[in-house]
């Protein structure tokens, strides 16, 4: 069980979900982002909180998306303009398979556009109302200048892949690039940060 709404299931155990939860089928090991890691759960929970507050800024860019599980969760929570990408060539097929595995809950809809590339790819077109970045802190820090450029004024950033012991380092980096922290969530040794770009 992830958050308040989701029930993540491995491919070989897919079936009905507990009452009130949406099944999300994953192929563990195919790519990062199968719902089993603390950072993925933290991000999905922050997306739930935003949706519950009626905050669904668009469009959305999922940076280093892995399987695309965060984009799928966002779609199921009501977002509609989503793009997911990863630099790893294996993630292209992984994202397509992930969409196919979850066709049942998607009702034939395509939840997000997916591509393999980098943040400097021509397909990246801001400004974005929401950036998702569940990647290592070092990579977040490297990409923050571009994130700052493509984020809409007042746009949101959900960042994770950050060890709790490096929280201050992460917060300083975000602030330097114009992202004001709104909330820090923690599970085990990991944190996720919800931040907002200065208007």
Verbal overview:
The structure is a single chain. The protein is an alpha/beta fold and 199 residues long. The protein has six helices and nine strands, in the order E-E-H-E-H-E-H-H-E-E-H-E-H-E-E. Strands 5-4-3-6-7-9-8 form a seven-stranded mixed β-sheet, sandwiched between helices. Strands 1-2 form a two-stranded parallel ribbon. The model has no long low-confidence stretch (mean pLDDT 94).
Number of helices: 6
Report the sheet with the most strands, covering strand number, pairing sense and barrel closure. 7 strands, mixed
Q: Span from first to last CA?
A: 36 Å
E-strand count: 9
Helix content: 25-40%
Share in β-strands: 25-35%
Overall pLDDT confidence? 94
Give the H and E element order.
EEHEHEHHEEHEHEE
Query: From the alpha-carbon coordinates, what is the Rg to the nearest angstrom?
Result: 16 Å
- Estimated structural class: alpha/beta
What is the 3D shape? Answer: globular
- Please list the strands of the largest sheet in the order they lie side by side: 5-4-3-6-7-9-8
């Amino acid at each position: 069980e992830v958050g308040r709404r989701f029930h993540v299931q491995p491919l070989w155990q897919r079936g009905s979900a507990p009452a009130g939860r949406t099944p999300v089928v994953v192929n563990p090991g195919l790519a990062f982002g199968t719902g089993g890691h603390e950072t993925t759960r933290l991000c999905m929970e922050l997306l739930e909180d935003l949706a519950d507050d009626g905050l669904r800024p668009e469009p959305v860019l999922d940076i280093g998306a892995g399987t695309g599980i965060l984009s799928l969760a966002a779609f199921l929570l009501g977002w509609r303009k989503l793009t997911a990408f990863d630099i790893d060539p294996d993630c292209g097929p992984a994202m397509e398979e992930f969409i196919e595995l979850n066709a049942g809950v998607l009702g034939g809809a395509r939840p997000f556009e997916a591509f393999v590339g980098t943040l400097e790819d021509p397909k990246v077109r801001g400004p974005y109302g929401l950036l998702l970045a569940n990647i290592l802190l070092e990579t977040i820090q490297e990409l923050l200048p571009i994130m700052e450029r493509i984020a809409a004024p007042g746009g949101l950033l959900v960042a994770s892949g950050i060890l709790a012991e490096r929280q201050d380092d992460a917060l300083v980096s975000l602030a330097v690039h114009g992202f004001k922290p709104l909330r820090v969530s923690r599970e085990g040794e990991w944190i996720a940060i919800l931040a907002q770009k200065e208007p």
